Amino acid sequence: MNRIEFFQKIGTGIRKYLPFGYREYAIHIKEVKISGQKYALLILEKEGIRNMPVMNLEPYLDRVGQGSDESVLIDIAVDYVKIASLPYRTQKSQDVHEITGIL
């Protein structure tokens, strides 16, 4: 499966694995280049909801190449909900502050 097919599969298939509260969000996949390397990023958006996390899809794309399509969609949905959860985001914010010496 190539990148475009993978992105289409996410766009059409991931909703059924997201919790009901996330199923009405718009799903966007954007490709960006950082230091010459291409990254595919997943973004869920809903009007009135700000600061939703962005998730790197590259590790999942590698797994799809190995033939685990449906389980990859499940993992993407589960992992996105984890990083979108307040406790996870709070912990990551604390980790960054500790690393940079802000605290």
Note the gap between the termini.
Answer: 45 Å
Measured on Cα atoms, how large is the radius of gyration?
15 Å
Instruction: Give the topology string: H per helix, E per strand.
Output: HEEEHHH
Estimate the strand proportion.
15-25%
Q: In what order do the strands lie side by side in the largest sheet?
A: 1-2-3
Computed structural class? alpha+beta
**Unreliable parts:** 94-103
What spatial form do the alpha-carbon principal axes imply?
globular
What is the helical fraction, as a range of percent? 40-55%
Main pleated sheet:
3 strands, antiparallel
Instruction: Give the overall average pLDDT.
Output: 80
- What is the number of strand segments? 3
Oligomer: single chain
Number of helices: 4
Explain this structure.
With about 100 residues, the chain is α+β, with helices and mostly antiparallel strands. The chain has 4 helices and 3 strands, in the order H-E-E-E-H-H-H. The chain has helices at about 5-15, 60-65, 70-85, 85-100; strands at about 25-35, 35-45, 55.
